[in-house]
Specification:
400 residues; alpha/beta; Rossmann fold; 2 domains; 6-stranded parallel sheet; 12 strands
């Protein structure tokens, strides 16, 4: 006989989106943690963009990637306006919520989850719309897998907002946000931080005593990676470069050609499932300053070099990490070479950043975040049961 725990959700819906890989990666890590904490719970995932159809989702992904590569200034302008103007942010939140909320309501009516978690801001907007317009009462949680919380992430009708840094309220621009804000663990898989540098290098066949730079532009391979790799290969004293190109086949082909003439100083990967080992093997992680890749590096923990940060959330996240000694910024290729030279020759600087990473990650456990969600669920569920019991008592008294 299966025993059902009334204090644990039986059905959880996680709303994400394939806009890059970070939101989905966070959803996957949360699923892993939920299944460890609540083994009997069924977890389903939903892509926010696909609520409007697969063709719309494909077009949205293409447009977003095109904007970041070809016209990043337009995204920077939008992000800056969103972060500074309450009126603009309010209009955007209302429009996005209505656009996706009606479709999400149909899905939720069919699935009837006990708990809904969003790792994508448009999903959170849709949930807020459902609360306000449809009286949706199921517990809703936003888990923000980024080092900057812009106003599209936060809503008055979301029960809990998990964020990565303690001053997120300054950027949320929402009255009462601190009441629902929780400092969360980075939503990454358990493998990050589980292996020593020596073990990882032996496993991957990397030199035991070299300075290893891991470069990645996320799942889409965004950023000036090829130019950065070319410059790093010319450095003296030499450094070893490991590059992860994600799903960017063009970048991968270009760098494999470069690797053939690098004398073993360049190792190139496409899309990998071994990122925990690659980060463990590195001395520093070079990325575009955005997404879950940053959180994976900090969980390992490894210092981050934010190289040519992506417009909008990339530059904003970089600012927050630099403030905490978790990252240094390199705006262009010469800046990248200079930062790698500093980190490879200044042991004190490298050690300071490593200690900052260790301090930041200390005490942050995804299971604890799941526990906070469970506490709210148990409280809310217990109150509902109490109300139902009181109704039964009143009905019995009336019959008597």
């Amino acid at each position: 006989m299966t025993v059902v725990d009334d204090n644990v959700p039986e059905r959880v819906l996680i709303i994400s989106a394939e806009m890059g890989e970070g939101h989905n990666a966070a959803a996957s890590a949360l699923t892993e943690a939920i299944q460890e904490s609540w083994p009997q719970c069924k977890v389903e995932k939903l892509d926010t963009m696909e609520l409007r159809g697969e063709r719309f989702a494909r077009a949205a992904r293409w447009a977003y990637g095109f904007q970041l590569k070809v016209a990043p200034w337009t995204y920077e302008l939008f992000y800056d306006r969103l972060s500074r103007s309450d009126r603009f942010a309010g209009g955007a939140k209302s429009a996005v919520g209505a656009f996706f909320g009606r479709q999400l309501a149909k899905v939720i009516d069919r699935r009837q989850p006990d708990l809904v978690i969003s790792t994508y801001p448009f999903g959170s907007a849709a949930l807020d719309w459902m609360r306000e317009k449809r009286g949706f009462s199921t517990i809703t949680v936003t888990y923000c897998p980024a080092f900057h919380v812009h106003p599209l992430w936060v809503y008055p009708h979301i029960d809990l907002h998990f964020v990565m840094y303690d001053s997120a309220g300054e950027h949320a621009r929402m009255r009462g946000f601190e009441e629902t804000m929780r400092l969360g663990a980075p939503p990454v898989h358990r493998g990050f931080g589980a292996m020593s540098r020596g073990e990882a290098r032996e496993l991957l066949g990397l030199p035991a005593d070299g300075f290893v730079v891991l470069m990645t532009g996320g799942a889409w391979g965004l950023g000036d990676i090829a130019q950065g790799v070319e410059a790093l290969l010319k450095m003296e004293p030499p450094v070893h470069v490991v590059t992860v190109c994600g799903k960017n086949a063009t970048l991968e082909a270009e760098l494999r050609t470069a690797a053939a003439g690098s004398g073993g100083r360049l190792v190139v990967y496409g899309y990998v499932s071994t990122m925990p080992e690659l980060m463990a093997a590195s001395n520093v992680v070079v990325t575009n300053g955005a997404g879950v890749t940053v959180l994976e590096a900090l969980r390992t923990p490894r210092p981050v070099v934010a190289f040519a940060p992506l417009a909008g959330h990339g530059t904003a996240s970089t600012t927050e990490m630099v403030r905490r000694n978790l990252a240094v910024e390199a705006r262009d290729v010469p800046g990248l070479v200079e930062q790698i030279r500093r980190l490879s020759t200044d042991a004190d600087l490298l050690h300071t950043m490593e200690l900052a990473g260790e301090s930041w990650v200390e005490g942050r456990d995804l299971q604890h975040s799941i526990g906070e969600i469970q506490a709210l669920y148990a409280l809310r569920h217990g109150a509902l049961n109490m109300t139902a019991d009181n109704i039964k008592v009143d009905q019995t008294a009336c019959r008597q």
